[in-house]
Amino acid sequence: TKHGRTTVDTNDGLQDEKIGIDYGLTQAKVFADSVGLNVVIPGSSAAGIPGLDSGHWALAPMYAIGFKPGFWHLTAEWDIASRVFTDGGIAQFRTELEIGAPVLRHLHLAGKLFFVRSARLGAYNDLRDHGELYNLLRAGIEAKYRVTDGLEPFVAYEDYIAGMGGHASQRFTLGIEIKY
C-alpha cells in the first residue's frame, strides 16, 4: 500500500442469485451445446465492503458448449454470455472455461477461469452502478457431488488473478445445481 498499511475487509451473506433455463441444441456423445436465459435476482447489496455482488436485477442470455473427449473421463465446458442490468447503467461480456474430471464415482473436481468486461451504456454513472462496473479475471476450483442425475450440491473457491472491482477478491460458494 502507499503508506505501508494493509487493510483487510470481509463480508458474508447471499450473493446475487441466478435462475435460468437452458435449451439443448446438440446432444452427442462427445459434444453438446445449448442456449439459455438467466435472470439475476439481487440477493445482496454492493454497499458492503467488499460488495458480495451487484445488488441489481439483470438479464443474462448465454451460449454454452461442452466436450467429453473420452480420455481420462475429462470434461470441458465453455460459457459465453452477456449480462444487461435492468436499471440501464451497465452491460457486461462474461465467459467461463471449466475443465474437470471425476475423482470418485459421484465426485467431480474442476478448475475454472472466469473473465468479465463491463461497459457503461450511458454517460451518467450513478453510484448505484459501481457494483455492476468491474473487469476481472478470476481462477477457481469446484467440487460437485452427484446425489442423483438431477441434483448436484457443490462447493467452490475463487480468487482474483487480475482486474479491478468492488467485489470480494476471494470467495467461497456453496450451492445446489438442479437439472430436470
Determine the N-to-C terminus distance. Answer: 49 Å
Binned strand content: over 45%
Relative helix content:
under 10%
Number of strands: 9
> What's the SSE pattern?
EEEEEEEEE
Backbone shape:
globular
Q: Briefly note the structural class of the backbone.
A: mainly beta
Radius of gyration: 18 Å
The largest pleated sheet is described as: 9 strands, antiparallel
Read across the widest sheet, the strand sequence of neighbours is 1-2-3-4-5-6-7-8-9
- Can you count the helices? 0
Low-confidence stretches: none
The average pLDDT score comes to: 82
Q: How would you portray this structure in words?
A:
Helix content is 0%, strand content 58%. A hairpin with a 3-residue loop joins strand 1 (17-27) and strand 2 (31-41). The protein is an all-beta fold and 180 residues long.
